């Protein structure tokens, strides 16, 4: 089968389109014929070595397609069958076939396509756990969402609005600000033209936000903390500008801020957690509360370009690879 693999860490040139044997599912796994795979920032962290993984490694963590084979011990209680349409958050997605733990696959309802499924497993579940688990967003709260025209940010804005929050988004350009507004942002700050801290202060009567959601990392950490109100929550969930070097616990005491640094996997470790949050997410997509805004579509041969585009700040919405 064809797969995109890296044998060493580095730039996007370490990604190679290779022919490798189709994986064989273990007894508790399923073999998936992949139709779409999602492009995510984590792909770049794994490839660059920021998040170490054993090599060689097939790229990609998010996919959807159909079940091609069931392992011998996959429990009938899971209700899975060959040809079921499913989505999965699991390694090895940038390939014609992948294997995944049967307990980690999500059956897609009729109204959710495999393209949508591949787009929401990682960014969608992340965004939903950010506003349900990292900080349980309440009606009437004010949330700041950095990169509000991006994949995760765009979904997070829609979810935060559905929970009754006032949402302030940030983007780098006016064109992206329009995208952020279409997601439902009440206010958008273009950070290349405006002072974000000053604007947030004006919009919140100097109090700051109940929660700041930032996947930017090092470049905005000081501003993110400054824009979090007294007893508010600063959720730092990514490193798109680089990993945060250090935060001093004493700095949190200036306003009794709660600091949360979540990763999706640790919110859905237990099957009950996975089923609860993914079921809620599918409901949001099926009933139209959350819409996936697709950006560019790529082929397997273009995965390196897709990763370069994602880190270039030029993209909006969800980048997807059609297998
Ligand atoms: N913790 C988790 O489990 C988890 C899961 C999923 C994603 N994440 C994190 O969420 C963040 C967003 O991921 P995504 O895949 O949805 O990407 P994305 O938001 O679609 O793209 C990144 C956006 O971040 C903004 N940005 C600001 N400074 C940047 C910089 N120095 N380099 C690159 N981009 C910069 C850009 O928007 P502007 O042009 O508007 O600035 C860019 O378009 C990443 O940090 C990722 O690691 C974390």
From TrEMBL:
<dbReference type="InterPro" id="IPR013154">
    <property type="entry name" value="ADH-like_N"/>
</dbReference>
<dbReference type="GO" id="GO:0005829">
    <property type="term" value="C:cytosol"/>
</dbReference>
<dbReference type="GO" id="GO:0070402">
    <property type="term" value="F:NADPH binding"/>
</dbReference>
<dbReference type="Pfam" id="PF00107">
    <property type="entry name" value="ADH_zinc_N"/>
</dbReference>
<keyword id="KW-0560">Oxidoreductase</keyword>
<dbReference type="Pfam" id="PF08240">
    <property type="entry name" value="ADH_N"/>
</dbReference>
<protein>
    <recommendedName>
        <fullName>Probable quinone oxidoreductase</fullName>
    </recommendedName>
</protein>
<dbReference type="InterPro" id="IPR002364">
    <property type="entry name" value="Quin_OxRdtase/zeta-crystal_CS"/>
</dbReference>
<dbReference type="GO" id="GO:0035925">
    <property type="term" value="F:mRNA 3'-UTR AU-rich region binding"/>
</dbReference>
<dbReference type="InterPro" id="IPR020843">
    <property type="entry name" value="ER"/>
</dbReference>
<dbReference type="GO" id="GO:0003960">
    <property type="term" value="F:quinone reductase (NADPH) activity"/>
</dbReference>
<dbReference type="InterPro" id="IPR036291">
    <property type="entry name" value="NAD(P)-bd_dom_sf"/>
</dbReference>
<dbReference type="InterPro" id="IPR013149">
    <property type="entry name" value="ADH-like_C"/>
</dbReference>
<feature type="domain" description="Enoyl reductase (ER)">
    <location>
        <begin position="10"/>
        <end position="321"/>
    </location>
</feature>
<dbReference type="InterPro" id="IPR047618">
    <property type="entry name" value="QOR-like"/>
</dbReference>
<dbReference type="InterPro" id="IPR011032">
    <property type="entry name" value="GroES-like_sf"/>
</dbReference>
<dbReference type="GO" id="GO:0008270">
    <property type="term" value="F:zinc ion binding"/>
</dbReference>
<keyword id="KW-0521">NADP</keyword>
